[in-house]
């Protein structure tokens, strides 16, 4: 856990632990709530209202051709 908290990537940790893939290391990421709390602290609350998506004419023309 201390490697994750220090900012070492999960790919590097997986290699050090001899895991076949990064998925084996995912359990450690989900087990550490302090990492999730730090990530949430870096985000700002959304103050703007979500807008409606308006595709460009180019996209609409492409979709019409499908």
TrEMBL record:
Native species: Kitasatospora cheerisanensis KCTC 2395
GO molecular function: DNA binding
UniProt protein name: Integrase
Superkingdom of origin: Bacteria
Matches recorded under InterPro entries: DNA_brk_join_enz
């Amino acid at each position: 856990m201390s490697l994750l908290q220090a900012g070492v990537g999960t790919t590097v940790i997986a290699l050090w632990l001899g895991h076949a893939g990064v998925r084996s290391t995912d359990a450690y990421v989900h087990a550490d709530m302090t990492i999730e709390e730090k990530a949430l602290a870096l985000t700002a609350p959304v103050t703007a209202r979500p807008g409606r998506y308006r595709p460009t004419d180019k996209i609409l023309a492409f979709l019409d051709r499908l």
